[in-house]
């Protein structure tokens, strides 16, 4: 028997009813009383189950085996349900954490266009708030194309539009239909991506332009050599003229390869670093600058610091030489160019100062972009690939520094960069050198 306690109770009540019925000859009342006792016991067990059901957190405590079995089954079912509910809640919390940390906006919309849910990025990119749940998105974001997308009126379910918060920000939105009459709308900021795509297109266009000019010259000379009966002297003269465009093309390719290597390489390791004497670097670049200037400029060096830089010598030499040649190209004949290496309170500074034509303020933020040139009528640009300052920027980035520019129109420019004290080696000797 699965419930012996219940059988024992029924047997005891039946025997009691028979005994009192035989004793009093009131058989009906005896069995009626026994039934009442049994009913009262069942009612008591029911009341215990009812009280337990109000707070079913602990195991029920019924006395009757049958009622205890029923209570235990309910308790186990509730426990399993609570476990499943806990798992679902934890999964929901984990999903909420993921969606809240997504950089892209995510909104769940009803078919009528009301906001059912949204993440932190949606609040940031679309200027929404958690209190906007249940409100129509069309009344909160005044952007016709975006609203048309959320209503399924855009082919491909993808658009790009200008942010309502700032005109310079471009957003891309996608609509993904979901089950349950819901739509998922994803929005991301594509401003930087568009800028990179534009830079890539500009880069390809600029490289093509830079290569087209020397190639055109080369092709012209080659066609002349092939199609005309030329004497030896003329032929040699034409071949000599091929040197300039080919040298320009090689310089462009070399600079492109160097820039690519600098952009893709990690910062130099300790085994690549050495103490670089910046005064020696200044002597080298001043000599090269005078050769490029051919006496048209007054070039001076001022070195009041004896500190050496922990870096890669050939890279720092390349950066400084680019600044030197840039100053020569943009300075008028007779202009002064000064190289300096001086101590600061917490480091040292290298600078190249010229008294040339200066740079308009609107160009300063883009001056280190590849192939970016300030197109001024007074500029006397003699050669160059348009990559020099971009190379300088990436070399300095690898040396924990950055290029800074102070410039005034018709007054000249100062290109400089600083090194922190942690990147310098100091000697006890002090000196001041000045040459012209």
Task: Note down, in words, how this protein is organized.
With 436 residues, the chain is α+β, with helices and mostly antiparallel strands. Helices cover 50% and strands 19% of the residues. It has 12 helices and 14 strands. The strands form 3 sheets. It has a 6-stranded mixed β-sheet, covered by helices on one side. Helix 1 runs antiparallel to helix 2, helix 6 (191-227) runs antiparallel to helix 8 (243-264) and helix 8 packs parallel to helix 12.
Quick structural overview:
The protein is of the alpha+beta class. The chain has 12 helices and 14 strands. The longest helix has 37 residues, at 65-101.
What would the principal axes of the Cα set say about the shape? elongated
Strand content: 15-25%
Q: What is the terminal-to-terminal distance? A: 116 Å
Indicate the radius of gyration in whole angstroms.
43 Å
Helix content: 40-55%
Q: Give the beta-strand count.
A: 14
Strand order of the largest sheet: 11-12-10-9-7-14
Continuous helix count: 12
What's the average pLDDT? 84
Class per helix and strand makeup: alpha+beta
Q: Major sheet: size, sense and barrel closure?
A: 6 strands, mixed
Following the backbone from N to C, one meets helices and strands in this order, namely HHHEEHHEEEHHHEHEEHEEHHEEEE
**Which spans of ≥5 residues are poorly predicted at pLDDT below 50?**
376-381, 428-436
